[in-house]
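>> received
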Amino acid sequence: MKLSVIVPVYNEINTIARVINDLTLVALKCEREIIVVDDGSNDGTREFLADLKNPLVRAFFHEKNMGKTAGINTGLKNITGDIVIIQDADLEYPPLKNYNILLEPILDGHADVVYGSRFLGVHRVFFWWHYMANRFLTVLTNILFDTMLTDMETGAKAFTCKALEGITLTSQGFCFEPEVTAKVFKKGLRVYEVPITYYGRSYNEGKKIKPIDGVMAVIALFKYRFSE
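>> returned
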């Protein structure tokens, strides 16, 4: 088995080196490759990746900022593994603590998709309104798809490559999470949830998601539940 880690990155010069280092060092029961997709960064991230010498890493570059889903799509076109993890470049989801937990249900043959729940494991006590928005989106997901997730918006998700076959991702902004969730459940895949460690960032530390993104996530859930 081989793991492909896709790292969509936009303006994360303060964390990208640490992310790649941790992805290189984490002890796994399978091979790995790291696919980093720079989404038009202008803070030095792009130059860092262009000069990077790491045999596990392949870097791809967008000429302009196109959004997280576009970065993931570029990564998916270039992976060679059997399992895919989408890794945010900001270290809110630490690979060293989470990867073996995420991979275990897939490697044991029980799951097609694994969600890492921030609310089941160790997590920073973060924004109340973010928590309430997440709870609302997760409950809405459970109603629409008759599921029992605790954290739909988690950025820690693992997929078998076979699970992603036939799924076309078209969303904009930060709507990757509701889109892929909707399409995974509509496909009838085996989804597991595991506790993970989460180091949430403040806006001063570089957090990018905004209240409007919650509104767009609601629209996306209904769109992908009923129209695609």
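>> The longest helix spans residues 128-145.
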